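User: quick one - fold this with heme C bound?
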Amino acid sequence: MKPVTLSTAFITALSTLTATTVIATPRQEPITPIAPVRITEPAKVELGKQLFFDPRLSMSGVISCNTCHNLAFGGTDNLKTSVGHKWQAGPVNSPTVFNASYGLAQFWDGRAADLQEQAQGPIQANVEMAMPHNLAIEVIQSIPGYRKQFEAIYGDKNVSLNNLTDAIAEFEETLITPNSRFDQWLLGDNDAISVAERKGYELFKSSGCIACHNGPAVGGTMYQKMGLFGAYKSSSPSQGRFDVTGIEADRYQFKVPTLRNVELTYPYFHDGEAETLGEAVDLMGRLQLGRTFKETEINQIVAFLSTLTGERPDIDLPHLPASGINTHRPEPFK
Ligand code: HEC
Ligand code: HEC
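Assistant: Sure. Structure tokens for the protein plus heme C:
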């Protein structure tokens, strides 16, 4: 990802917004609206989209990025933990790819700096697509329709891992969800959210959720320990940032997840243990704030969280190019 491009796009989009569509005064809040995306390199975005949907990047020939990050839904698989090559269970829950570009780093433990670095992980990961990088490159290289696009965009018909992941990342940067009801309210439309939803937001702020879940993505800006007011018991082997840094203080520190579109991305937490949003809110209150919410309070916060569902991009299924005569064939049971 190129943070510079993104922030320029963000500022331009925001100023267009302010100039043309916003009549009311935007509110000053710790959550800020998501700006509509501005596509500067459409051919690269299209190539990235094809690769995102192409199961030939997996050894089995049946798993694509979209398998676990379903763009027709919330950008996740809605499973407790993901299922990958040969039906293997992964160790953690699949986070949404919508608005992922806002994250300070990628993965629950932040082990990839940006979307481009992240995209290298799943192709090769044994429990995901199980496709060695050299073979993935060979497959894409053997498909004439891809070779042509790589040459036109990168000036090189030799496909590289760098260019392949660059295209995927470029596509992912378009996966943002602006214009949620909450954003409409932030931009000055008083009637965009109900009284109960507004109460939920006030509680979200006054009780302290906002300290960790803030910014345009309502998360993604920091790492925090899961279980500040009591240990969180999990069956998942993940130890969060500790797995990356080996520093004791980082044990069970996870990237604070985005709460955008959270009503679509169940089940919750890195281990997918919380099935409903109500359960997740209740646990957050007790474990992160030392506070037990009443049922009405939980309902209000859940109501507020549902106003964070934005407009998902309209995505036409891409037309994938035909395999070449020498394209390595899928091996579903290898
Ligand atoms: C088998 C299911 C599976 C497949 C296939 C898969 N992912 Fe993921 N993805 C996951 C899981 C699980 C995680 C979380 C892993 C972790 O944090 O350790 C994840 C994390 C991510 C993240 C990080 C999001 C965040 O907020 O931290 C991005 C971005 C992403 N995947 C994009 C992709 C792309 C692009 C592809 C295709 C090249 C892909 N994924 C293929 C399951 C999958
Ligand atoms: C001290 C920081 C902190 C505070 C305060 C906090 N959270 Fe969280 N929140 C996190 C972290 C870290 C996670 C990820 C934990 C994990 O997956 O194990 C998380 C996860 C969540 C999730 C699950 C999202 C998903 O996609 O899995 C929800 C929902 C949530 N928080 C809501 C809230 C609400 C509501 C409050 C206030 C009652 C709150 N949080 C307070 C840090 C915090």
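One thing worth noting: DSSP finds twelve helices and two strands in the chain.
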